[in-house]
Amino acid sequence: MSVEAQLEAAAKDLLAATKAADAVRPDEPSLSLRPWMRKNLFSSISSVILTVVFAAISIFAYRGVLNFIFSEERRWDAIRVNLRALFTFAYPESQYIRIWVTLGIVLMLTGLSMGLMKSIGQGFSIKRISMWFLSSGSAIIGGLILREPSVLKHPDGTPVLDENLQVIRESFSAAMGDRVWWWLGGLVALGIGLGLWFGFGELRRRTTFIAAIPLTLGFIGMFISTVWWFKWGHYGTNTAGDIIIEPGRTVAATTKGPWTVMWFVLVFAYIAGRAVFTTKRAATARASLGLAWLLAPFMTFFVILRDPALDWSHVWSTHIPMALAFIIGGGLVLWALTNPNIGEIGRLIAIVLITLALFHWVAGFFGWYPMLQKARISFLLLGLAGASAHNFAGDARQRSRMVWGWVGLMVIVHYLATMINTASTLEVNGEFAGGFVVTLYIAAFTMTFSLPLGVMLALGRTSTMPLFRILSTTYIELVRGIPFITILFFFAVFVNFFLPEGMELAKLAAAGIGFSLFGAAYLAENVRGGLQAIQRGQYEASDALGLTTVQRTSFIVLPQALQVSIPPLVGGAIGTFKETSLLSIVGIIDFTRVANSSIPGQTEFVGVKREGLLFISLIYWIGAYSMSKYSQRLEKQLGVGER
Amino acid sequence: MNTKSKLTKLLALLFAFTLLATSCGSSSDGESTAAPAADNASEEDNDDVELTQGDDLLEQIIARGTLNCGVASVSIGFAVADSNGVFQGFDADWCRATAAAILGDANAVNIVPLTAAERFTAVQTGEVDLLHRNTTWTQSRDSDVGMDFGPTTYFDGQQLMARVGDGFTPNSGVADLDGAVICTNAGTTTEKNIAEAAILAGVEITLNTFEDFDIVTQNFIDGGCDVITTDGSGLVGRKAEQQPADQEWAIFPGQPISKEPLGPTYGQNQSRFADAVNWTVYAMLIADEYGVNQDNVDDFLGAEAELGRLLGGEGEVQTAMGLNADAFYQAISQMGSYSDLWKRHLAPLGLQLEGSANDLWTNGGLMYPPPAR
């Protein structure tokens, strides 16, 4: 055989092997247990050793965690009694409907978003679902055997002690007998898993898929249904403030009802989203949903939860006329400025508008004449809109788009500014929010504000204008060089010393601003990475089309750059969500602070801290993990990283 | 250019200036959108506050209708959020009693939890009117820091706690600490006090500090610390709640190693407000001198002499202070006397009023309110 023939044969073999591998990988037949273990766990001496060592470590860790959770020393009733304090803190119980409405809105948007998402992949295969059941069943049964037997207790709940004052544990067999319900649960899970595994054939269990979202909704529904029949226990305080602990009951009706409604809201929103998904309106629906998500934190927090005490005569005499003046006047100005034939005079008007707006701010700083802050903000927005109006010049349709955009912006700005500026009817302890609500609020606030600010900083840093570049670079490098906790202390404790006379920032607002300013600097660097990934050709092509800088940036560069930056941006969002726990250090009663300080300080639960920390870890983890799952999905959907 | 576009330009300019006029004419208050939860009274109220700003704090509070009172964010028995998020405790009730005296309503109080680092800043910036926040009355705080102190509501003092099994008894002293590992929480004066006491007694100790006292106590239970030290009130509570079945703890020395007089704290040079705060404390102590408490105060309404004056019978003394004639009746009927507060929050922790420094002077304690006349 000649060398060439050999080479050719080798190449053919290689090609065939690659093809076979490609063909096989997605449908590789699952090995039966023994070959699988031999291949993955015991393939060589070293892997045998590693498997044994790490299996032992995992078993000991699992045993330790179980013994910790089920220890007779654990005071889980501290968590159950304090659930209200943990999640909503001092929010008055009579106003709880506001919390449910807020949650309902968030779940409705979630459901609609899930319905409108493109499906990725085919969902979960029967094989995978069966593996879940098998592993959870074996985890439960393994845990039953591993966990140490329970402590013997007197009828009043105190442990029985021997002569050395040590607790006495029941025998192993008695412990197994006590855990009969757990056994049953574990065996049922195992049974379902085995049933699915063998009920479907080798091929069918790999090729039968169940859509991920309906399955998840079903599981959530099953969990929520337990409030109706499982005796979780009735924990809480009565009107006199005494703690009620009744373990043998199902949860209170005020918990059952709303949660069931919430599940239905989620499911119906998903079905509605799914229905819209197939119509031509899906893109519009998705865009309006994005806007709704942006507005939701402000609407729910400042309007629904805060319940501003509006003075209607003042609203009619001042707020509404002023908003109308800006809407109509500003709309006409912009209509004129988007006229393609306006020429040089348009630029002049824009300059006059910007000068006027800046003058109002200077005058406000020196206190020359009074003006509502929102009027100053509106003037500034009008100036900016005027300056960029020529980018939207065109026929009547294009011009009216700009004007309607302005009308929408003004309605939102004036509505929210009025609401935020009106005192709440619900304030307790200086703030009306505490616990998990604060955690969520600060996280949402930071994400909403640091994104536009960070994008602006990134554009400034990559700008060719030296002033913008230097200012942005200085800001980014300055903030990135200061530890976050220092910035937070400054904003939460000392910022009121530096504000003009008569102006005062609530601690929560100050902390939110500190979070946003800090987050923006890091976000700017992530976005800058995205900007640098845009190929030069994109810029040249937009120049060749005759686009202006603003048009090029907002229609060509930014959409691509933001898409590339999604993974780090979501990473940043997860980071922000977890960093909110630092609020507890500056004296804001957030989720961590309730668990770390308030509960261990209560006379009934002195020093009970580990339970609370474990519980909040679980909640933080659920939040962070679902965000990270969502970002993985988003990456797949956008094809980032597959180019 | 045609006439139409010129017209449009003119119109645009005209509107720009009409806008300016509208917004100037319709807005006369300088409130800021950047302050969501700040004090946002309506225009008229704002003007009133402007006028009185820098004037008498007592009048400001009465005009405002709420008292802003700073408490510790967590101090077992003194101030802690309950499972409904409402602050409860000895200090929180002093805030409510002060509000009842000044405003006639114990609920007209905004209880603000403050960390140790923030407390004086909060008073200086006006975020709170006063502190009932475990603040020790010291020379430098009274002068340099710019605070004024009211009558002590709780005489505390640093003590130590150790296991009886290690040979400690309630009669032990600092001299018995030789070689012991002593734990306390970081960043407080307790650390300095025990170090100084050990030097004075000539014993060698190892000092370990932890982030907070929950961790200190846990280390003590687990055997990582031989002795723990903090204010006596804290130790008694820990012993009552956390002593395991197989250990016995002893608190010593009988005479604390430091003096910690805790009481109301407020900004300097607000005499009328200070009088109102101080006399609320005195009134609740005087009530105990006469055996008056929350339940029986109505029986004493027509009483003679000092008690009658205090409860508003001849109200000139209170009205001269700028309070309502029945100010202290309101405080006592809504919140109780000094011993009522004690029974409600400190007795459940195992703290004994009888025989302690906090008992009335008639029982050998240090509480000696001036006469009400």
Provide the fold topology.
The complex is a heterodimer of chains A (643) and B (373).
Chain A: H1 3-24, H2 33-40, H3 45-70, H4 76-81, H5 83-87, H6 96-116, E1 124-125, H7 126-146, H8 172-178, H9 180-199, H10 202-207, E2 209-210, H11 212-229, E3 234-237, E4 243-246, H12 253-277, H13 282-305, H14 312-337, H15 344-366, H16 373-388, H17 396-421, H18 436-462, H19 466-480, H20 484-494, H21 507-532, H22 536-544, H23 549-564, H24 566-579, H25 591-601, H26 610-638
Antiparallel strand pairs in A: 1-2, 3-4
Chain B: H1 3-26, H2 43-52, H3 57-64, E1 67-72, E2 80-81, E3 87-88, H4 90-103, E4 109-114, H5 119-124, E5 130-131, H6 139-142, E6 147-149, E7 154-156, E8 158-163, E9 181-185, H7 189-201, E10 206-210, H8 213-222, E11 227-231, H9 232-242, E12 249-252, E13 260-262, E14 265-267, H10 271-289, H11 305-310, H12 316-320, H13 327-335, H14 338-345
Parallel strand pairs in B: 1-4, 1-5, 9-10, 9-11
Antiparallel strand pairs in B: 2-3, 5-14, 6-14, 7-13, 8-11, 8-12
Helix pairs in contact in B: 4-10, 4-13
Q: What's the short version?
A:
Chain A has 643 residues and is mainly alpha-helical. Chain A has helices at 3-24, 33-40, 45-70, 76-81, 83-87, 96-116, 126-146, 172-178, 180-199, 202-207, 212-229, 253-277, 282-305, 312-337, 344-366, 373-388, 396-421, 436-462, 466-480, 484-494, 507-532, 536-544, 549-564, 566-579, 591-601, 610-638, and strands at residues 124-125, 209-210, 234-237, 243-246. In chain B, strands 4-1-5-14-6 form a 5-stranded mixed β-sheet.
Give structural notes:
- The complex is a heterodimer of chains A (643) and B (373).
- Chain A is mainly α.
- Chain A folds into three domains: 91-277, no CATH class; 310-422, no CATH class; 428-636, Orthogonal Bundle (MetI-like fold), CATH 1.10.3720.10.
- Chain A is built from 26 helices and four strands.
- Chain A has helices spanning 3-24, 33-40, 45-70, 76-81, 83-87, 96-116, 126-146, 172-178, 180-199, 202-207, 212-229, 253-277, 282-305, 312-337, 344-366, 373-388, 396-421, 436-462, 466-480, 484-494, 507-532, 536-544, 549-564, 566-579, 591-601, 610-638, and strands at 124-125, 209-210, 234-237, 243-246.
- In chain A, β3 (234-237) and β4 form a beta hairpin.
- In chain A, α21 (507-532) packs antiparallel against α24.
- The longest helix of chain A is centred in the C-terminal third of the chain and has 29 residues, at 610-638.
- Chain B is an alpha/beta fold and 373 residues long.
- Chain B is globular.
- Chains A and B meet through α14, α15, α16, α17 and α20 of A and α1, β2, β4, α8 and α9 of B.
